[in-house]
Design brief:
It contains three helices and eight strands; from the N terminus they run βαβαβββαβββ. It is α/β, with parallel strands linked by helices and about 140 residues long. The chain folds into two domains: about 60 residues, 2,3-Dihydroxybiphenyl 1,2-Dioxygenase, domain 1; about 55 residues, 2,3-Dihydroxybiphenyl 1,2-Dioxygenase, domain 1. Helix 1 packs antiparallel against helix 3.
Length: about 140
């Protein structure tokens, strides 16, 4: 089984994924609304919204997203009920991801060794997406 987080944005999915790509790397796949059949009647300001975007985030997993389409009744509600939890392979990678993704955002817990034995930090990025970075100090 693979877990692929899927995010929704209100017109800035491409901007967000260019930012995420600058941290994770990899090739970005992007399709716009006007590339799908039946979208000819969309308002002009919605035709270039993102229908689907993805970037690889390691080991066959992808971070994916799309923009909401207001004319179809979609409404984005950003909340604190979702986090993307990333488990990097080293402390150095944990710091790199934390520092890169939290740039311009709000840090909840800075990276630190935690009572449960892991190196952990959490934040909300500049797009309102919440992240947890958790490196296990335990050798498996």
């Amino acid at each position: 089984m693979r877990l692929n987080p899927y995010l929704n944005f209100d017109g800035n999915a491409e901007e967000a994924f260019k930012f995420y790509q600058s941290v994770f790397g990899g090739e970005m796949f992007l399709q716009r609304m006007d590339q799908a059949p039946g979208t000819e009647s969309l308002p002009e300001n919605e035709k270039k919204r993102v229908m689907h975007v993805s970037i690889p985030i390691g080991d066959g997993q992808f971070l994916m997203a799309s923009d909401c389409v207001p004319s179809m009744g979609h409404v984005l509600h950003v909340g604190n009920n979702n986090y993307i939890s990333v488990t990097p392979d080293s402390r150095q990678e944990a710091d790199r991801l934390f520092n890169g993704l939290s740039a311009g955002g709000k840090i909840e817990m800075p990276m630190a060794d935690m009572f449960w034995g892991d190196y952990f930090g959490s934040f909300e990025d500049k797009f309102g997406v919440r992240w947890m970075i958790n490196f296990s100090n335990r050798q498996n």
